């Protein structure tokens, strides 16, 4: 994946193709010691430092004109502690490689997002999440972290450490790359288990009317609403005693590749060329996916391939505000004249104790809006963002948004805790870039 996130003549590009950077130099350290040396050298040369994973963020969170750190050599499983139920991995490990390696060891993460191309450090540093009634984001499953700070020293932290280490742990699990460069992550894992997925279409109004029950009755509930229609596709994932009943190869190819990537890609091209056709395409798309049930190990249920490129904005709103927010979003699309060819994704997370987590201190629901790469998205995202912020929404750190430090200080009760820690760990702002200046303040 990293190859798609890099370009010619020293220009780095993200997966969405909307962010580019021209670093002075690129370093791929093979050890933590090499990384420490690269950080110290950058400071001596007066250059800023940023680490970048697979480039899956739509924001400029990883860009720099200084030293760009590529962590792909800091990857793989370092240690499995079966007694403690933990696994320690290098920061550059891709989630898909971690999932497969854990499955071979008979282990699994409890919850995960639906894309698995990201590196573990990139995914956790930006707050990547799936959906869950009790189980939170990928970062909420971290039990310890190792990072290189601005003076080149290596800091390990967990909830069991000193007071300072606990403060770092509370913030660095979703650290935005502002506190240091993560080199290794220890995750809580459990013996591999089976999930039964039940996917079925459901009318929009019924999902909203029954949302609280659907959330309460399922370990993992999410749904997709197709704008310009009254249709949604719901997905419930619950633990199962088995037996394993994976999606058949042909059915899997048809639903996940042909419909969700192939036909969907063509539909997006048609919609981009002829926006007036979008509502008709949406009606057809919303009916293309039929109900299905299958049982498999977690990563085969939670994750799916995403080959159609898009732009995305996602906000976390208080869970009790989700149905009202969605009604406002639908009313806005219906009266706007906008042509939205991508479904809106709705997920949930329980409150957690991570300083700048989108679910920090409150049960949350996530609403994600997407537009096909190359179609104008600003009008739609601006109108959606106005609705989300009216509900004190918190944007995903790695997805398109226009918020700044002043706004975040209002919607994150512990915002000052994070910036004070940053002042201690990176007083000279070695890890600063334009994005962090905007969202954290100078």
Describe the fold and architecture:
It is a single chain. The protein is of the alpha+beta class. It is built from 14 helices and 20 strands. It has helices at residues 32-44, 95-104, 120-125, 163-172, 204-209, 211-217, 249-273, 278-288, 298-302, 322-336, 378-390, 405-411, 415-425, 434-440, and strands spanning 12-13, 20-21, 25-27, 49-51, 67-69, 77-81, 86-90, 107-108, 142-148, 154-158, 181-188, 190-191, 194-203, 220-225, 231-240, 292-296, 310-318, 344-349, 364-372, 394-395. The strands form 5 sheets. The chain has an 8-stranded antiparallel sheet with strand order 16-13-15-14-18-19-17-20, sandwiched between helices. A 5-stranded antiparallel sheet has the order 6-7-11-9-10. Helix 7 (249-273) runs antiparallel to helix 8 (278-288) and helix 10 packs antiparallel against helix 11. The longest helix is centred in the middle third of the chain and has 25 residues, at 249-273. The chain is globular, with a radius of gyration of 21 Å. The protein starts with 11 loop residues before the first strand and ends with a helix.
- What is the helix fraction of residues, given as a range? 25-40%
Low-confidence stretches: 1-6
Count of strand segments: 20
What does the overall shape look like? globular
Largest sheet: 8 strands, antiparallel
Which key terms come to mind for this protein?
single chain; about 450 residues; alpha+beta; five-stranded antiparallel β-sheet; 14 helices
Topology:
Elements: E1 12-13, E2 20-21, E3 25-27, H1 32-44, E4 49-51, E5 67-69, E6 77-81, E7 86-90, H2 95-104, E8 107-108, H3 120-125, E9 142-148, E10 154-158, H4 163-172, E11 181-188, E12 190-191, E13 194-203, H5 204-209, H6 211-217, E14 220-225, E15 231-240, H7 249-273, H8 278-288, E16 292-296, H9 298-302, E17 310-318, H10 322-336, E18 344-349, E19 364-372, H11 378-390, E20 394-395, H12 405-411, H13 415-425, H14 434-440
Parallel strand pairs: 3-5, 4-5
Antiparallel strand pairs: 1-2, 6-7, 7-11, 8-12, 9-10, 9-11, 13-15, 13-16, 14-15, 14-18, 17-19, 17-20, 18-19
